[in-house]
Structure formats: structure tokens, C-alpha cells
């Protein structure tokens, strides 16, 4: 019983850690610009697919991962520069549509260049599972959770202790005021896209060894990441991580004890309920609307 | 008769009382101004009166009917209309349609009738369009009859909001800083407009920073400070009130 | 007496629809025309919700899917007459839309986008998973559309039926947007608080337009299933929702003619791209971005604005 439960818990935490990374990507862009990047999931897919293509082409694993993350980051920058900035709009609906469009472009490009099949990626270390209290844990899961923790700590330091991080937060609170005190808000936007693309790609290359990846894997992962970010209250880095882990565990437990067919629906049922009951998330701050 | 009676009204945001145990009466047909320093609770009060906020405590009576906690659309149907400090004109529509929206409660806005364009709608809508055009002329916007709202300058948008509010044929009109951002001559036009509206029998509640305008048009003035009533009375009385002078000049009386 | 532009437009549309069979189109052209007509009606409904009222829906294909499978499942497994199944599907979809509309439509911006998207995905997941009824991702076959002993078949007849439906949709939708109810929709888009102050029951109106557009999508989903004689969960999928959205945006937000243009362009585009089969997704994405950057109002409103400016 316990070992079985533990097994599901490990599975939930592993997937949850990648949701957390995706959620952090949303959080970053949201913090810098108040917008939701609907292409975030495609960054995850792009990182994983690029890495697997590079490995298949004979590039050593670690180099392939680094290149894939760098390439995805570049795509993030390109997206900010050539899709988001030129629109010069602050309309939430327009921004949603632009990022959706960019996501489609990324997905379509991968579909054309790498095909529709499933792709595998080797893990960072030996793939023999460890056994803890009768439950198996693949080493890659430990890598995922460990690296997610490191990234959260780095981000926490960045937002709270560096000038640049504080500028990013200031920009989201009041764009005009940030401009007036000399913050380059456009630079901040591009930077946030770059960083969130990198985070997505890291999540992608870490998760792919466990789940396989394909050109259409990004949509669902991205949506789950958003659900995690929303659970944690958009804009809260700690909330994003907790949201990701909670979502991962709930999904794993649903698959185990309720219905594996409907595990993907859980996130969406959860998000609709959450929005209706507590639109600011479990950890988010309330904002008030002034007329 | 009183058009509006506010009794022990309070609104708390978190621990802060934006409006605090406030009572006052607005006589029908009067121009009643609400003034006070920034943060005195004027906008909160007008949002309470128009149903955008629900009060934390207190009672609002409108023409002898208790309307505490009523939604804005319900209050609109009872004859209360307002304009906004930060203009709320529908930029996706043309100017005259914006005004026609104000008359929404007086026409059949049912979906079924709309989908089939039933004759009674066609007739009522044509009449409403003419009324709206007349109202635009009344507030001095004839030249914008065929304009899109998004093409109009700021001063004209402020009047457009007044025209929209009047299209509801209100008994009570709340004007939230109608002169804000306007130049001297535009303000003078607004003053004349307010006087016209009041003369036509509409009770006007005016929130305004322009003291000259307030002193010129108001029948009575309510002075707020920290959400409480600081003074109330005719312009002459309020002008001479040492507490009011202190609040405005920031010195102890 | 002068003819109102929209009456003229309706007449022109009727003439155009009637003229198409005179060109003696082949089966392929008829098939494309039918697909355009189905999408156009759905897009008109979606435009009322999104273009006019400003309420984004990224799950609209879910409603099409509900209609599709109501017809498919009720006729196949329960032997219901197709017309009854279609009405039952529309009623069920309308009821579901009614129940979820009030909580969902209080949301704004990305919250609304994600909630509607989630709703669509939940529907698609359910259609994929209820294998014993729906055949899962393989889809299922659907009988022809019959009323009594009469069977609707042949491209020409489908074309005729759907042309009439499109004319009805264009007529009623143009009526609506030009009525007090339509003005309320646009006022909600422009400023919710202003609409409320003007006496519009904002929540109630949003529910009505949401239910209306859902029912339209469901009915067209039912008809599409009978026309294709096949149902697949992709009908309800995220990609279809995005395509519908693209049709509204490219054709023109808050424009009925725009809905037709958007539906026609983006239904025909994949055919033009048939040599470049996998390129559909990427091209749709580029179209979305380019439209938002260069003509955020969409094709028809942008062009008609240019025209009026040229004239004056």
C-alpha cells in the first residue's frame, strides 16, 4: 500500500516539477509585462525536440542540451522582437492572440522539420531506478526536482537581490513610472521572454527522457504549466512551484485512484473551479479595480 | 422632497474606512456638490451611490425607496445616472450609439425581438436615435453626429458621457469631475450645461475639484475629509467655514 | 426609398449563393463550398460573442463537438431520428452553456481565455475517452440526415440547405447587432461599467450571447456530422477552436461580412496549401500574428475604413 502510494507520489512530483518550471516561465513574462504567453508550452516542446534531434545527429548529450536551450532562448527573443513588440498593443486579447499565433508557428515549424513521430532523449545519468521503501524512482526524476529547486533559488535571488530583477517587477507594476525612472521596459520584455523560453527549454529537455516528446506535446504541457501558475497566483514564483507540484500530485493520484483516462481533464476542471472561487489563486495578491 | 437620503453610510477597504458613517440629504431639483481634498472619499461615495460598490453599512434612500446594495442597472431603471472621472465611453462604437446606450432601459432590448428586428423595435430605435441626436445638440456635439467615439477629443468625450447619462432620462444625475482636464472656456460651457440640466428638473450631484465652478453652480455643498462630513451648507457658509479652509490650506484653524 | 446597405448586402449574398451552382462546379468545389458555409455560420455566432461583446472563447469547437456527437451517438446507438437528435444536442449544449456561462463570463482577459480553453479541452477529452459510445480517437460513422422517409443527400442539396441557413444567420445576426440588444453587446465590449450604469444587465446579456453562439455551433456540428457521415474528436479540439478564432480575427471583429470572408479564406487556404500539407499550422500562426500587427481590426473593417477615407 505505502510503496504503491509512494510510487504515485514520486510520479506526481516528477511531472509536477516540470509543470513548476513551465509555470515559472509564465510567471516571469507575467511579472515583466502583465501578459500571459500562450506559446510557453511550445518552448518546452521546442527545447526537447531540438535536443533530441541534435543527439540523434551525433552531438554529445550535454552539448546538445546546451545548444537546445540556447536555440529556444533565441526563439523567445525573436518572438518578443518580431511578434509582440511590433503590435504595440496593451490589449490583453490582442496579446493572447499574438502569442497563440507564435505558438502555432513554432509547432508548425517543428512539425515540418522534425516530423510527427515520437522522439526520445537520453537521461542525464544512469537510467537504473533507485528503490525507496519499495517504490522505484528514476534518477532523471531526481535531476528534475534538484534542478527545479536550484532554478527557483536563483530566481528568488534574482528578483529580490538584483537591480535587474527589481526593475522587472517595477515594470510590471507601472510601466510608465518604470520608464520615467530610466528602466528600459522594452529590454525587460525581451529579457523576460528569453528567460522564460530558457526555463521552458530546460523543463523540456529534463522531462523528455521520462515521457518521450513530439511536435504536439507542448500545448498540453503549456496549459498545465499555466494551470500551475494560476493555482499559485500568477506572478508569484514560490506559488508557481507549489502550484506545479500540487497539480502533478493531484494528476498522479487521479490517474491512480480515479481514472487514468481523465487525468488530463483534472487540471482544467481545477482551473475553472479555481477561477470561479478564487480568481487570484491560492497565494496571489488581490488587486482592485478603480473606475 | 428629498431625492436622495444617505444615512450612516460606511465603506471599508480592508481596515481603511473610505467613507465613514456619513449622512446627508439631497433635495430634489438642487445642485448638490461634494468636495474635499484628494482621498477624501468622493469617488468611493459616488461609486456607492451608483451601485458599483456595495456599502459596508448604512442605508441609501432614493425618492423614498430604500435602494441600499442595488446593482447599477437596477438603479438606472429607477432613474439614477452618472458620468465618470476616467471617461467610460465605448470606443468601439460611434458617438450617437454611445448616447443611445443611455436610453437602453426605455427600449425593448430582448434578444428575440432583436434577432427578428420586430417592427416595434425598429420604431422605438428610430425614435431613440432622434432623441440621441437632439441630446448631442443639447450638449453641443452636433458636429460629431456621424463621428466614431475614438475620433473625438477629450473635452467632447466628457460631454458625450453627459449626453449618454441624460438619454436615460434620469431623475438624479451624478457628475464625477465633469470639468477635470478641461480649459477655462470649456469649463464655462459645462457650467452652463449643468445649470440647464438642473433647470429641467434633474437633481444633480456634482463631484468637482474646480472650486470656482462649484461655488457658482451649487445649491448646497457637502465637504468630505477622510470619509467623514467636514461641513455642509450653502456655498457662502462652506466658504466661510474655518475647518474647510484648514482642510484645504493644510493649516490648523 | 433608399436600400439600407445591409439589405443590399443580403441580396448580393443571396445572388452570389444562387449563382454558384450555375458555374456547374464539380463535387470538390461543392464540398469546399459546404465546408465554407458550415464554418461561416459558426463564425457568425462566435463573432457575436467575441467580436461584438468582447468575450474571448478559445473552446468554441467544444460546442461543435457536442452537437456532432449528440447527433452521432443518439442516431447510431439509440436510433433517434436525426432531426430530434440535432434538437436534443442543441438543447443540451445550450443548457450546458447556460450553466457554465455565469461563472465563466465574470472572468476577464487571460482568465476567460484559459477557462474557455479548458472547457473545450475537457469536452475533447471526454469525447476521446468515452470509447464505447464515440469510438475514441478513431471516430465513428454517422448515418445520413433523414426526415421521415426523405434523405438529404448529394452536394447540391446540402449546399442549398446550408445556403439558406447562412442567409438566415446573416439576416438575424445583422438584425441583432443593429438592435438595442446588439447595442448592449457592443457597450459591454466598450466599457462594462458604462453598460451597467446605462441599465444593461451585463451578466444576463453575456449569458444570452454565449448560449446563442453555443447553440449555433452545436447545430452546425450536428449538420457537419451528417454531411460528412463521420464524427471525430478533432472536431472539438483545441486546433479547431484556434482556427475559428483566426477566422473571426482575420475577417474582422464585430463584422458580419468579415465573418464570411474569414471563414471562406481560412477554409480555402489549406486547399491552396495542399502541396505543402504540414504547413497549415505555421501559416495559420503567421496569419494571426501579421493580422494583429498590421490590421488588428481585421480585413473587412480595415478595407471599408480605407474606402470611406478615400471617398471623403
Characterise this structure:
The complex is a heterotrimer of chains A (291), B (253) and C (312). Chain A is an all-alpha fold. Chain A has a single domain (8-277), classed as ABC transporter involved in vitamin B12 uptake, BtuC. Chain A is 74% helix and 2% strand. Chain A is built from 11 helices and 2 strands; from the N terminus they run H-H-H-H-E-E-H-H-H-H-H-H-H. In chain A, helix 1 (2-33) runs antiparallel to helix 10 (237-257) and helix 5 (139-161) packs antiparallel against helix 8 (185-211). Chain A is globular. Chain A starts with a helix and ends in a 14-residue tail after the last helix. With 253 residues, chain B is α/β, with parallel strands linked by helices. Chain B has 2 domains: 1-79 and 170-253, Rossmann fold (3-Layer(aba) Sandwich), CATH 3.40.50.300; 92-169, no CATH class. Chain B is built from 10 helices and 10 strands. Chain B has helices at residues 42-49, 72-78, 95-102, 111-116, 119-138, 154-167, 184-199, 211-217, 235-240, 242-249; strands at residues 2-13, 16-27, 31-35, 57-62, 65-66, 80-82, 172-176, 203-207, 220-225, 228-233. A 6-stranded mixed beta sheet of chain B has the order 6-7-8-3-9-10, sandwiched between helices. In chain B, strands 2-1-4-5 form a 4-stranded antiparallel beta sheet, with helices on one face. In chain B, helix 3 packs parallel to helix 6. The model of chain B has no long low-confidence stretch (mean pLDDT 92). Chain C has a domain at 27-237. A two-stranded antiparallel ribbon of chain C has the order 1-4. In chain C, helix 3 (60-77) crosses helix 10 (202-228) and helix 11 (238-251) packs across helix 12 (256-272). The A-C interface holds A 35-36, 38, 83, 86-87, 89, 91-94, 96-98, 100-109, 111-112, 116, 219, 223, 226-227, 230, 261-262, 264-265, 267-269, 271-272, 275-276, 279, 291 and C 54, 56, 58, 100, 103-104, 106-111, 113-115, 117-119, 121-122, 125-126, 129, 193, 238, 242, 245, 249, 278-289, 292-293, 296.
In short:
The complex is a heterotrimer of chains A (291), B (253) and C (312). Chain A has 291 residues and is an all-alpha fold. Chain A has 11 helices and 2 strands.
Amino acid at each position: 500500500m505505502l510503496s504503491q502510494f509512494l510510487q504515485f507520489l514520486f510520479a506526481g512530483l516528477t511531472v509536477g516539477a516540470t509543470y513548476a518550471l513551465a509555470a515559472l516561465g509564465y510567471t516571469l513574462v507575467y511579472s515583466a509585462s502583465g501578459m500571459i504567453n500562450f506559446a510557453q508550452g511550445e518552448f518546452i516542446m521546442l527545447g526537447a525536440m531540438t535536443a533530441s534531434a541534435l543527439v540523434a545527429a551525433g552531438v554529445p548529450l550535454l552539448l546538445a542540451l546546451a545548444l537546445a536551450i540556447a536555440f529556444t532562448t533565441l526563439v523567445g527573443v525573436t518572438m518578443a522582437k518580431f511578434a509582440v513588440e511590433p503590435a504595440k498593443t496593451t490589449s490583453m486579447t490582442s496579446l493572447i492572440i499574438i502569442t497563440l499565433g507564435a505558438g502555432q508557428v513554432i509547432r508548425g515549424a517543428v512539425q515540418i522539420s522534425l516530423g510527427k513521430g515520437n522522439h526520445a532523449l537520453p537521461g542525464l545519468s544512469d537510467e537504473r531506478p533507485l528503490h525507496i521503501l519499495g517504490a522505484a524512482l528514476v534518477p532523471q526524476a531526481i535531476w528534475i526536482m534538484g534542478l527545479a529547486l536550484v532554478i527557483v533559488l536563483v530566481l528568488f535571488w534574482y528578483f529580490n537581490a538584483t537591480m535587474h530583477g527589481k526593475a522587472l517587477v517595477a515594470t510590471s507594476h507601472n510601466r510608465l513610472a518604470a520608464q520615467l525612472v530610466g528602466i528600459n521596459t522594452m529590454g525587460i520584455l525581451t529579457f523576460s521572454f528569453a528567460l522564460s523560453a530558457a526555463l521552458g527549454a530546460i523543463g523540456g529537455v529534463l522531462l523528455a527522457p521520462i515521457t518521450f516528446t513530439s511536435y504536439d506535446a507542448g500545448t498540453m504541457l503549456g496549459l498545465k504549466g499555466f494551470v500551475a501558475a494560476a493555482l499559485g497566483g500568477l506572478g508569484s514564483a514560490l506559488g508557481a512551484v507549489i502550484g506545479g507540484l500540487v497539480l502533478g500530485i493531484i494528476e498522479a493520484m487521479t490517474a491512480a485512484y480515479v481514472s487514468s483516462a481523465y487525468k488530463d481533464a483534472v487540471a482544467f476542471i481545477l482551473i475553472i473551479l479555481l477561477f470561479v472561487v478564487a480568481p487570484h489563486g491560492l497565494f496571489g495578491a488581490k488587486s482592485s479595480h478603480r473606475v | 422632497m428629498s431625492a436622495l437620503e444617505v444615512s450612516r453610510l460606511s465603506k471599508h477597504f480592508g481596515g481603511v474606512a473610505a467613507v465613514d458613517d456619513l449622512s446627508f440629504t439631497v433635495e430634489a431639483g438642487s445642485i448638490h456638490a461634494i468636495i474635499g481634498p484628494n482621498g477624501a472619499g468622493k469617488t468611493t461615495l459616488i461609486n456607492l451611490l451608483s451601485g458599483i460598490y456595495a456599502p459596508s453599512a448604512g442605508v441609501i434612500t432614493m425618492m423614498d425607496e430604500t435602494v441600499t446594495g442595488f446593482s447599477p442597472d437596477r438603479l438606472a431603471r429607477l432613474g439614477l445616472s452618472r458620468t465618470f472621472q476616467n471617461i467610460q465611453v465605448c470606443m468601439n462604437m460611434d458617438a450617437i450609439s454611445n448616447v443611445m446606450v443611455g436610453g437602453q432601459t426605455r427600449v425593448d432590448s430582448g434578444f428575440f425581438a432583436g434577432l427578428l428586428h420586430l417592427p416595434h423595435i425598429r420604431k422605438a430605435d428610430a425614435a431613440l436615435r432622434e432623441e440621441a441626436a437632439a441630446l448631442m445638440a443639447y450638449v453641443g456635439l452636433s458636429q460629431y453626429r456621424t463621428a466614431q467615439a475614438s475620433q473625438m477629443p477629450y473635452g467632447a468625450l466628457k460631454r458625450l458621457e453627459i449626453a449618454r447619462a441624460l438619454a436615460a432620462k434620469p431623475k438624479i444625475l451624478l457628475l464625477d469631475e465633469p470639468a477635470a482636464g478641461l480649459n477655462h472656456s470649456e469649463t464655462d460651457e459645462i457650467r452652463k450645461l449643468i445649470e440647464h440640466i438642473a433647470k429641467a428638473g434633474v437633481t444633480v450631484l456634482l463631484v468637482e475639484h474646480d472650486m470656482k465652478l462649484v461655488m457658482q453652480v451649487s445649491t448646497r455643498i457637502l465637504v468630505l475629509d477622510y470619509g467623514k462630513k467636514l461641513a455642509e451648507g450653502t456655498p457662502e457658509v462652506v466658504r466661510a467655514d474655518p475647518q474647510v479652509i484648514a482642510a484645504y490650506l493644510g493649516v490648523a484653524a | 426609398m433608399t436600400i439600407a446597405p445591409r439589405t443590399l448586402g443580403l441580396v448580393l449574398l443571396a445572388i452570389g449563393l444562387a449563382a454558384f451552382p450555375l458555374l456547374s462546379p464539380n463535387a470538390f468545389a461543392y464540398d469546399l463550398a459546404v465546408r465554407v458555409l458550415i464554418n461561416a455560420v459558426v463564425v457568425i455566432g462566435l463573432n457575436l460573442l467575441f467580436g461584438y461583446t468582447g468575450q474571448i472563447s478559445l473552446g468554441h469547437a467544444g460546442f461543435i463537438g457536442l452537437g456532432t456527437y449528440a447527433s452521432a451517438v443518439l442516431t447510431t446507438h439509440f436510433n433517434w431520428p436525426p432531426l430530434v437528435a440535432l434538437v436534443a444536442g442543441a438543447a443540451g449544449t445550450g443548457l450546458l452553456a447556460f450553466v457554465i456561462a455565469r461563472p465563466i463570463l465574470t472572468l476577464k482577459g487571460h482568465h476567460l481565455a484559459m477557462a474557455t480553453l479548458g472547457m473545450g479541452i475537457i469536452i475533447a477529452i471526454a469525447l476521446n475517452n468515452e470509447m464505447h459510445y464515440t469510438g475514441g480517437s478513431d471516430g465513428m460513422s454517422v448515418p445520413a440526415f433523414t426526415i421521415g422517409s426523405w434523405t438529404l443527400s448529394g452536394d447540391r442539396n446540402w449546399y442549398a440547405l446550408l445556403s439558406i441557413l447562412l442567409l438566415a444567420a446573416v439576416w438575424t445576426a445583422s438584425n441583432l447587432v443593429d438592435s438595442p440588444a446588439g447595442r448592449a453587446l457592443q457597450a459591454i465590449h466598450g466599457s462594462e461599467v458604462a453598460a451597467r450604469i446605462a441599465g444593461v444587465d451585463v451578466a444576463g446579456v453575456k449569458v444570452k450571447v454565449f448560449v446563442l453562439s453555443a447553440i449555433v455551433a452545436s447545430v452546425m456540428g450536428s449538420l457537419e456530422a451528417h454531411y460528412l457521415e463521420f464524427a471525430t474528436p478533432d472536431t472539438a479540439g483545441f486546433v479547431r477552436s484556434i482556427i475559428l478564432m483566426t477566422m473571426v480575427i482575420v475577417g474582422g471583429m464585430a463584422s458580419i461580412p468579415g465573418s464570411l470572408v474569414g471563414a471562406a479564406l481560412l477554409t480555402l487556404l489549406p486547399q491552396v496549401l495542399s502541396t505543402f500539407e504540414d504547413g497549415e499550422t505555421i501559416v495559420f500562426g503567421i496569419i494571426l500574428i501579421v493580422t494583429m500587427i498590421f490590421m488588428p481590426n481585421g480585413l473587412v473593417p480595415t478595407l471599408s475604413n480605407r474606402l470611406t477615407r478615400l471617398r471623403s
